[in-house]
Amino acid sequence: MIYNRKIEITLFLVLFLSFSYFYQGGGANQNARLGQMRAVVEKGQLHYRGIRVPTHDVVTRNGKVYPNKAPGISLSGVAPYFLISRLKGIIIELSSEDFYHLFSCYLITVLLVGLPCALGGVIFFRLLGLFHPAAIPRLICTLALFLGTPAFAYSTVLYGHMVSSVLTMVGFYLLYKYLILGPDSPRAGWYIFLAGLASGWAVVTEYPTALIVTVLALYCFIHAIFRNGIRSFRFGYFILGLIIPAGVMMGYNYLVFDNPLYVAYFDKTAAPHKAYQQGGVLGLNIHARQFLKALYQTSFGPFRGFFHLSPFLILIAPGIFYFARKKGKRALLITLWILVSAYFFINSIYPYWYG
Q1: Three-state SS across the chain?
Q2: Fewest CB atoms within 10 A around its CB: which of 19, 23, 61, 292?
Q3: Does 273 have pLDDT greater than 70?
Q4: Is the pTM of this model over 0.85?
Q5: Of 123, 121, 112, 118, the residue nearest 157 (C-alpha)
Q6: Same domain, 97 and 4
Q7: Mean per-residue pLDDT for 9-33?
Q8: Is the predicted pLDDT of residue 47 greater than 60, yes or no?
Q9: Tally of structural domains, the chain
Q10: What is the pLDDT of residues 131-143, one digit of tens each?
Q11: Confidence band (pLDDT; 50, 70, 90) for 270?
């Protein structure tokens, strides 16, 4: 136990220092989120009026301009940005206003993305421990994922991608551990509730995460029914945990779009490109040439190909064979690969797959 704790502390420090070392600057996506934080703190509003925000990732509603992103990152950053803004006068006096804006963006990125992702590495290490007890192989896998794949880059920018991934992983870890493996644990209900809270906020941070959360939650519930019988109905705590993030998301959508179920991705003014106008939902259509090109470039191709950027991922092949041989884990393996295949497919038929 002490040995694992030392590894976890070291792992966290390595990841946190690695993520916080880099600063990627602005960009449309990051500026859109940071701009809304500034609007809430400085103007007490969700829209950009009176705030100069250099971004095209916006949606216009009732004459007001908002970010076209899921609100999770922006809302999470309000409190940290408020505290940082209290130091604005001191920072400007010592340096300049330009430095203040750069420094505040850096701190927000480290606090909202770098820190959670470093903690996510520790959770991933523990998650692997549910399936394999040896610490060194788990440590190697964790470092490989967080420092040897695009996860590293996305842990240094003010995007929602890695934060939502980490929250989804936390939700799955807690649900699997306390609903399936340890339903009789003294605080199992509380941890299952936290699983719902984390999973729900993952969706508020990045809407497409809803598919992963739904599939993994259903897997855990169904598996728990066969394994634990009536105790599987502690899954209700998970639903309770989902209610809070769902309420936040619906409240935000109502304030901005006058519709609690509205999603900005579907708004005609939400994108600066014409991808959404090519038919289907969000422009999703199957065109053989585009599909094959996108599939290749995101897997083995030099343009963001997973196996091109991180060749060690080819070890997935023997990993599948190893995992499939473990007793009682085949259903989980199939579930995970259905999700992986679904996201590769959706990304490959999306006209804006390269953006």
Answers
A1: CHHHHHHHHHHHHHHHHHHHHCCCCCCHHHHHHHHHHHHHHHHCCCCCCCCCCCCCCEEEECCEEEECCCCHHHHHCHHHHHHHHCCHHHHHHHCCHHHHHHHHHHHHHHHHHHHHHHHHHHHHHHHHHCCCCCHHHHHHHHHHHHHHCCHHHHCCCCCCHHHHHHHHHHHHHHHHHHHHHCCCCCCHHHHHHHHHHHHHHHHHHCCCHHHHHHHHHHHHHHHHHHHHHHHHHHHHHHHHHHHHHHHHHHHHHHHHHCCCCCCHHHCCCCCCCCHHHCCCHHHCCCCHHHHHHHHHHCCCCCCCCHHHHCHHHHHHHHHHHHHHHCCCCHHHHHHHHHHHHHHHHHHHCCCCCCC
A2: 292
A3: no
A4: yes
A5: 112
A6: yes
A7: 93
A8: yes
A9: 3
A10: 988 999 999 999 9
A11: low
| Together in a domain, 101 and 173 | no
Structure tokens at 223: 């598996």
d(CA 225, CA 354): 41
CA distance 150 to 146: 8
Predicted confidence (pLDDT) per residue in 194-214, tens digit: 999 999 999 999 999 999 999
**Statement to judge: residues 79 and 135 lie in one domain:** yes
Structure tokens, 353 = 């797959």
Give the residue numbers spanning the domain of 295.
273-355
